[in-house]
Amino acid sequence: GNSVTQMEGPVTLSEEAFLTINCTYTATGYPSLFWYVQYPGEGLQLLLKATKADDKGSNKGFEATYRKETTSFHLEKGSVQVSDSAVYFCALRTPDGGATNKLIFGTGTLLAVQP
Amino acid sequence: DGGITQSPKYLFRKEGQNVTLSCEQNLNHDAMYWYRQDPGQGLRLIYYSQIVNDFQKGDIAEGYSVSREKKESFPLTVTSAQKNPTAFYLCASQDQAGTVTQYFGPGTRLLVL
What we know:
The complex is a heterodimer of chains A (115) and B (113). By secondary structure, chain A is mainly β.
């Protein structure tokens, strides 16, 4: 079946460090891929997305490239800030012809950035 | 401002009680979704609706019910049959054309007394 696997957290970094959060997926066909961010006590916000192989999504200094050959969509940021502390979710939308457009989420990775 | 609102922010349920969580959107989206979030388990789909007066069960629908009488509203009822209702509940809506992006509300935390 379709699934998303994220690296387990928490990930603890110092301010200005480089961030990588790994995400791999299993899906038939060509899913769309997403990263969402959840700040404490809040809902999820879309961070970035990619809809086809080799697409790069980017927003607020975060980037992720859709790699079909490795079925991956790793999240990166060159220099993290304390304000980036949050839970990050990788998700895919199954290419089922648009019948449901459901999202499948990973378990989330907690990022804690220390000053 | 367009967006999704959920109320209340916190909700307390007594044993044997049904409670209803509100979700309203003014984004003119056709599709709406309810998720349950438990620590370390990510989000699990409860129910979804792609159009008014129609909805389908998600992966964990037992003990929950929904209605979709208006495009902008998709309330979720947690019934007494749901034996472990303590969780964070998230509502989302989605544009079905163009980018097909899902947008989330701020969530409701349900606690059992």
